[in-house]
């Protein structure tokens, strides 16, 4: 046997590596990562995805199925295998709606998936409901379920489908153009050149109330996520993050400010608020940063951690607390709440583990190449060499 399973309360033998597990048996808060080893990550390279290589959005339906919007269409995961759906199209956005349908925003096209009488998913286009004057659009970057309707956001205009009629929502001015759209705590929010606005269907875009200040020239908002308790968190391309109130008087304060310089160098591209209150931020070529609810860094996952591809296009947490990462070249499942993590060569366990013991509050692992002592260094826990005990 090459390694052990290491519980925080008990020790047992396993097959490979040293593993840490919380003894409570339930889902561990993500902010226990300071004492964790490698998180379990399942990576699927783009070449192995039938409709890949890039995954632009992810969503989950009421039955628990995971949908991935990819370069050449939609893939559906039932917990065992991925199934490619027809038709083939570049899918940018997905939204699970209360009516049981999965709405799909594609390149120059949109509609929904719904089971037929045999239970097979069938795609239905909604383009016949779009007037000719509003059909000149490219990608549907956001598809959002909001107040019994579905809103499809493009860079030229938006379209709202209430199940019977399609309403066109124009952008009156360049500064009103919405770059990403989301629904948070009952409000439909858009990122624009003038900051975060509340999109009010039926009102002119120039009258949409601004909730934040405009970004600095050359900067721009890439994501708006739920900040909890009447707040949102904004993520900018320049690396800055703010926590803002949703109700008047609107105010914003810097969030994760000590990370803004590091983030500005690697360009945030996606973000997701997690059920634990933590936040995941994905970067263009530099993996995923996991942040504590107070904004401090917990863990920065990169290719060496098993992510496979550091170019993160989208982040999504499913109802079981698994973080899914849509990548430029593949797809990854990150078990951020797992009670079981791995200590292997990168964490100081470089050979066969013979025994593990606790002494005077310190945890030790006896290996074939010497004694190792458990320690926490910054965002990472590891086993360090004990001098003179090799």
Question: What report would you give on this structure?
Answer:
The protein is mainly β and 390 residues long. The chain has 1 helix and 35 strands. It has one helix spanning 260-264; strands at residues 3-7, 11-14, 18-21, 41-45, 55-60, 66-70, 73-77, 82-85, 91-96, 102-106, 109-115, 121-125, 142-146, 149-153, 157-161, 166-170, 180-184, 187-192, 195-198, 221-226, 231-236, 241-245, 252-254, 268-273, 279-283, 288-291, 297-301, 312-317, 323-327, 330-334, 340-343, 353-359, 362-367, 370-377, 380-385. The strands form 9 sheets. A 4-stranded mixed sheet has the order 2-1-3-31, with no helix packed on it. The longest helix is centred in the last third of the chain and has 5 residues, at 260-264. The model is unreliable at 1-17 and 22-26 (pLDDT under 50).
Question: Any chance you could write out the topology, listing elements then pairs?
Answer:
Blueprint: E1 3-7, E2 11-14, E3 18-21, E4 41-45, E5 55-60, E6 66-70, E7 73-77, E8 82-85, E9 91-96, E10 102-106, E11 109-115, E12 121-125, E13 142-146, E14 149-153, E15 157-161, E16 166-170, E17 180-184, E18 187-192, E19 195-198, E20 221-226, E21 231-236, E22 241-245, E23 252-254, H1 260-264, E24 268-273, E25 279-283, E26 288-291, E27 297-301, E28 312-317, E29 323-327, E30 330-334, E31 340-343, E32 353-359, E33 362-367, E34 370-377, E35 380-385
Parallel strand pairs: 1-3
Antiparallel strand pairs: 1-2, 3-31, 4-30, 5-6, 6-7, 7-8, 9-10, 10-11, 11-12, 13-14, 14-15, 15-16, 17-18, 18-19, 20-21, 21-22, 22-23, 24-25, 25-26, 26-27, 28-29, 29-30, 32-33, 33-34, 34-35
């Amino acid at each position: 046997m090459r390694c052990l399973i290491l519980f925080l309360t008990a020790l047992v033998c396993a097959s490979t590596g040293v593993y840490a597990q919380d003894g409570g048996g339930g889902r561990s808060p993500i902010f226990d990562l300071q004492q964790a080893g490698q998180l379990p990550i399942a990576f699927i390279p783009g070449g192995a995805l039938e409709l890949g290589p890039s995954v632009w959005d992810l969503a989950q339906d009421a039955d628990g199925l995971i949908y991935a919007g990819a370069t050449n269409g939609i893939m559906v995961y039932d917990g065992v295998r991925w199934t490619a759906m027809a038709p083939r199209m570049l899918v940018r956005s997905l939204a699970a709606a209360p009516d049981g349908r999965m709405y799909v925003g594609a390149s120059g096209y949109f509609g929904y998936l719904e089971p037929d009488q045999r239970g097979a998913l069938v795609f239905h286009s909604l383009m016949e409901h779009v007037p000719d004057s509003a059909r000149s659009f490219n990608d549907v970057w956001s598809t959002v379920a909001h107040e019994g309707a579905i809103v499809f956001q493009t860079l030229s205009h938006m379209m709202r489908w209430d199940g019977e009629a399609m309403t066109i929502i124009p952008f009156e001015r360049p500064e009103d153009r919405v770059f990403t759209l989301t629904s948070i705590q009952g409000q439909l929010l858009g990122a624009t050149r003038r900051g975060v606005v509340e999109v009010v269907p039926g009102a002119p875009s120039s009258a949409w109330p601004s909730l934040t200040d405009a970004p600095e020239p050359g900067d721009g908002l890439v994501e708006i996520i739920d900040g909890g308790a009447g707040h949102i968190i904004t993520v900018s391309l320049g690396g800055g993050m703010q926590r803002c109130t949703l109700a008047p008087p609107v105010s914003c304060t810097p969030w994760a400010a000590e990370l803004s310089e590091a983030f500005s160098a690697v360009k945030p591209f996606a973000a997701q608020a997690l059920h634990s209150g933590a936040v995941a931020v994905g970067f263009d070529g530099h993996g995923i940063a996991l942040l504590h609810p107070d904004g401090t860094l917990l863990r920065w996952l990169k290719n060496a951690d098993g992510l496979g591809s550091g170019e993160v296009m989208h982040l999504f947490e499913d109802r079981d607390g698994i973080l899914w990462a849509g990548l430029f070249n593949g797809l990854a499942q990150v078990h951020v709440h797992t009670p079981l993590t791995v200590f292997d060569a990168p964490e100081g366990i470089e050979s066969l583990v013979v025994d593990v013991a606790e002494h005077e509050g310190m945890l030790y692992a006896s290996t074939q190449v010497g004694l190792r002592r458990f320690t926490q260094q910054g965002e990472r826990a590891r086993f360090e060499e004990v001098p003179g005990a090799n």
